[in-house]
Design brief:
Elements (H helix, E strand, L loop, with lengths): L1 E12 L5 H6 L1 E11 L2 H6 L8 H14 L5 H15 L5 E8 L11 E8 L1 E9 L4 H13 L4 E6 L3 E3 L10 E10 L3 H14 L14 E7 L4 E3 L2 E3 L8 H10 L12 H12 L1
Antiparallel strand pairs: 1-2, 2-3, 3-4, 5-8, 5-9, 6-8, 7-8, 10-11
Helix pairs in contact: 3-4, 7-8
């Protein structure tokens, strides 16, 4: 991906652990590498097709001067987050915040923090089989769309299915959501669990009835196996009610473990069940 590079933008602001740093202020140097596609701007010679680095520099200054943080880690995080959310053409940002006058009592040229943040593509399974099923799903989609650091890309059609595992319950309505998010997997999981809790979900029976079910199916091409979270979702290749709506919005996305597209997995399951 192409890069727009800003080197050592000098800003005087008030960040630091010590009281004197917050009162007197000091110089900071901010650098940023902005990942974007510059092809259209390069061909058309029109600024609206690129990231206006002048506006970016002024926005960095506003963030630096309009806040007071203890840590330059927080400064860097805030800058990266705001740039990614406010400049829609930026797909990834590397931000370095350098502190030339770090008060450590020893000769030093500078101390800096450098981070990399980007938009991640995730696919979420959504379902309900209690109460007003469609309303629970509609409300969850709306709440996801209201998150500032998350953008809904596509929402599949909804399908009615028989319950999976525990069959002594009502039929489900299921679908899938494709979204871009700045949340890491754990943050995304925590957010989705919060939505389930708001919908009154109770986890009393494994695979039991639920007002709202939200599962992280895929997250970029990440392979993660932790006690609280497995990505890709282990049940993807077994569940028609996942593969059918997921193949509608992401047919050519490849399962990072099985190395097969979602459409291929759907066709294989249909052939097996026929």
């Amino acid at each position: 991906m192409d890069q727009i590079i800003i080197k050592e933008l000098e800003i005087y602001s008030n960040h630091g652990v010590y009281k004197e740093e917050k009162v007197l202020g000091q110089k900071f140097l901010v650098s940023a590498v902005l990942y974007t596609d510059t092809k259209r701007a390069g061909v058309s010679d029109k600024i609206e097709y690129s990231v206006n680095y002048g506006e970016v520099c002024h926005r960095i200054r506003d963030i630096m001067e309009g806040n007071t943080f203890d840590l330059i880690e927080r400064v860097a995080e805030t800058i990266a987050e705001r740039l990614l959310m406010e400049f829609t053409l930026i797909k990834k940002a590397e931000v370095e915040v350098k502190k030339p006058w770090a008060p450590i009592g020893l000769p030093i040229q500078s101390v800096s923090v450098k981070i990399e943040r980007k938009w991640h593509r995730a696919y979420i399974g959504i379902g309900s089989n209690m109460g007003d099923r469609r309303e629970y799903i509609k409300r969850a989609v709306e709440q996801i769309g209201q998150e500032e650091d998350t953008r809904i890309v596509r929402v599949s059609s909804l399908m009615e299915t028989e319950p999976y595992g525990n069959v002594d319950q009502d039929r489900f309505i299921n679908g899938c959501i494709g979204l871009d998010t700045l949340k890491n997997p754990s943050e995304l999981l925590e957010f989705l669990l919060g939505l389930e809790n708001k919908a009154g979900r109770e986890r009393t029976v494994h695979w039991g009835p639920r007002t709202l079910d939200l599962d992280i199916l895929l997250y970029d091409d990440l392979i993660l196996n932790e006690p609280h979270l497995t990505i890709p979702h282990i049940e993807i290749p077994k569940r028609q009610f996942v593969l059918e709506p997921l193949s509608e919005i992401a047919p050519h996305v490849r399962h990072p473990v099985l190395n097969r597209t979602i459409l291929e997995l759907k066709d294989a399951l249909e052939e097996k069940d026929s």
